Amino acid sequence: MNAPVTGKPEIVKELNRRLVYEFLRRKGTTSRIEIARETHLSKATVGAIVMELLQEGYVREVGYHAPGVGRPRVVLEFVPDARFVIGSEITDAEYKVILADLHARPVRSLSYALGSLSPEQVVETLLRAFTEIGAEVPSEHILGAGVSVPATVDSRTGQVLSSVVLGWQDVPLGALLSQRAPWPVAVFSRGNAGAWGEKWRGAGRHVANLLYVRIGTGIGAGLVLNGQPYFGKGFSAGEIGHTTVAPEGPVCLCGNRGCLAAVAAVPVLALRARHLARAHGDRELLALVNGNLELLELAHIIQAGRAGNPLARQVLAEAGQYVGLAIANALNLLDLEMVIIGGPLAEAGDLLLEPIRAEVARRGLPTVLGGVQVVLSALGPDAAAIGAASLVLRERSAPLQVPQVYTFPSRPFSPLPAGVGQQRPL
Do 358 and 217 belong to one domain? Predict the structure, then answer.
């Protein structure tokens, strides 16, 4: 637990409040005495902060605990549904929106079909979704909204710098939403949001250094380093889909040749499976699509692979080998503790995971492979939406010396009433 520091009174007050709040959130139930002992704050300081949190509804008193000696202690309980946050993801097929509590646990979810990809239509649909999903919660109890998009995003400003999926360039999505939403809105890349979602409440909760790889229409990733989200100086960290894995391979949408996305993204696998099925006259795959191989999609490949179809398993294994090669390079560079595989292709489970692990074992240095885990996402298709929500929540409890990863556009926002001492974003 971080120790209190000295400095300007208003900054110290805010930092101490965050310290107490985060201890309560993680602990669940505790006492004032335990908070003071673990945070090294004075009993008077803890008492004042707890009183504020009680008044605001973040904490409640739930009885007494009688230790072996001494007076009974009042038991404090953190209230996860005292406030809420909205998380959302724009995929290549739909809008996914969740209402989450202070642990980033979804309590309600909605989805909308993706129509026009114009920024104006996306903003209108998201605003409608925000209103609908927050309808049963007092507006003042919603701290803000996080939006994740398949794009490179300047999360300081909410500017979508570039998105092949959406066809956008320099779109001020955060500002457009914050100007009209009842709450401030932050915008993140889908890979970064997914990585932090897995760190906050998914497969990566107990590790400090991880890589999240999402494999779908494209291939993106996000990093957590030393327990903090890492976006890179230009917010482009995580573009693993444009790692070269086949130098003489097909041309990628980015213009390079042999990118991971050009040989292992879902549309590429579907094309590969159709080609092989035609060449070999594969009866099992033909039967799944009533003889029309143009209808063959990822779900059919996974279904056939689970049934033991050699061709489907070959396609999935080839993808796994390419992904494993890219991951091994990342591990050799960064020496991570965990790699998490998410996105639509993760539905293949061990049919994908085993070839990835085998390639990682073959390509990775022995010094970086010891103890590293390569696992499937624990949050599945909700990883990015939960991650966007949890990135918003992170700012309320992160120590002030930890750099922010975003600011809410157009208007200031601090979920904690003190609202002072925010470190300038990088």
Answer: yes
> DSSP per residue over 45-95, as a string?
HHHHHHHHHHHHTSEEEEEEE--SSSSPEEEEEE-GGGSEEEEEEE-SSEE
Cα dihedral across residues 133, 136, 138, 143: positive or negative: negative
Tokens describing residue 56? 């605001």
Q: Closest by alpha carbon to 34, among 45, 22, 23?
A: 23
pTM given for the model: 0.88
Neighbouring CB atoms inside 10 A of 275's CB total 12
User: Which one, of 415, 333, 307, lies nearest residue 86 by Cα?
Assistant: 415
Provide the 3-class DSSP secondary structure of residue 230: strand
Query: Residue 415 and residue 142: Cα distance in Å, rounded?
Result: 9
- Tokens describing residue 207: 């590790």
Give tens-digit pLDDT for 292-315: 999 999 999 999 999 999 999 999
Q: Into how many domains does the chain fold?
A: 3
Please say whether the dihedral angle defined by the alpha carbons of residues 140, 172, 191 and 403, taken in this order, is positive or negative: negative
Domain of 369, in residue numbers: 203-378
Q: Each residue of 247-263: pLDDT tens digit? A: 999 999 888 999 999 99
Domain membership flag for residue 415: no
CB neighbour class for 120 (10 Å; exposed up to 12, middle 13-18, buried from 19): exposed
